[in-house]
Design goal:
The protein has 267 residues and is α+β, with helices and mostly antiparallel strands. It has one domain. 22% of the residues lie in helices and 27% in strands. The chain has four helices and twelve strands, in the order αβββββααβββββββα. It has a seven-stranded antiparallel β-sheet. A five-stranded antiparallel β-sheet has the order 4-3-2-1-5. Strand 6 and strand 7 form a beta hairpin. The protein starts with a helix and ends in a 15-residue tail after the last helix.
Length: 267
């Protein structure tokens, strides 16, 4: 009995209270009432493709809409190949054919929310990894009608996390408030990254943990993530994100401060 009492206290402190704080912040933010009223246009955080002269990969995210936005972001992948001369954006959505290419501008706002950068890779490394990203997207097993489940997954964040696991050289982890990123099929799932940098355990996509150089130490509960990152020092807080150094420090500062929770130093 004492064990369950302590467990409930830990859950309240590390998961419930931060989630309630994030929800309170979200309710105070002006936002569109529906997707029809939302702004889906380019945010301008990416330079025009015509000005680029080297391959680039961006993993991006933005707060989602409605009540979901209190706890979660939507993530996507952007690539640029000079030979093609344009950005390619890959998302997963909840209607029709789930995985979309260039359904939105590469840096489009999501439900009026300005995107931020999770990871950026440039130059020769990007040139080498873009074909592997495209192969991972082509191999994604839930790109069919009915292949989207908002919670616990597979959703948009599950899709991007699939690509990041398939291409560990990207050295990227989605932010802790990307609900669905830790979903795995089946009741029990345990995997170790091909490069050995992380291990991950999932119990039906509802509970689990991750540990390693890339993820730090994380505990997963019902799609929420609490933990810490030692390599890029930061706390991982449910609903709020990273508090501390960003996973992609060089570019994340371009996220407008008025779209961040007040207590978040760098999401």
């Amino acid at each position: 009995m004492r064990f369950f009492k302590r467990l409930s206290i830990l859950f309240t402190v590390f998961f419930l209270l931060p989630s309630l704080a994030s929800a309170a912040w979200w309710m105070s933010v002006e936002r569109p009432g529906s997707w029809r009223q939302a702004d889906w246009t380019s945010s301008g955080v990416l330079p025009p493709a015509a000005t680029l002269d080297e391959p680039v990969i961006h993993v991006m995210a933005a707060r989602t809409g409605g009540l979901k936005g209190a706890l979660s972001v939507h993530s996507w992948i952007v690539t640029f190949d000079p030979a093609e001369g344009r950005y390619n954006r890959y998302d997963k959505v909840g209607w029709g054919q789930p995985v979309r290419r260039n359904a939105y501008a590469a840096d489009a706002r999501w439900y009026s929310n300005t995107p931020f950068f999770v990871k950026t890779v440039r130059g020769a490394d990007a040139a080498r990894l873009i074909p592997r990203i495209e192969a991972a997207i082509a191999a994604y097993p839930y790109n069919h009608r009915g292949g989207y489940t908002i919670w616990p997954g597979p959703n948009s964040n599950s899709f991007v996390a699939h690509v990041l696991r398939a291409v560990p050289e990207l050295d990227a982890v989605l932010p802790p408030h990307a609900v669905g990123r830790d979903w795995r099929p089946g009741l029990f799932a345990f995997d170790i990254a091909p490069d050995g940098a992380d291990m991950h355990f999932s119990l039906g996509g509802l509970m689990g943990f991750a540990a390693g150089l890339r993820s730090g130490l994380e505990v997963h509960m019902f799609g929420l993530v609490a933990g810490f990152d030692l390599r890029r020092p930061a706390l991982k807080i449910p609903g709020i994100g990273r508090v501390g150094m960003s996973g992609d420090q060089a570019l994340s500062s371009r996220m407008p401060a008025d779209r961040k929770p007040p207590s978040t130093a760098s999401v």
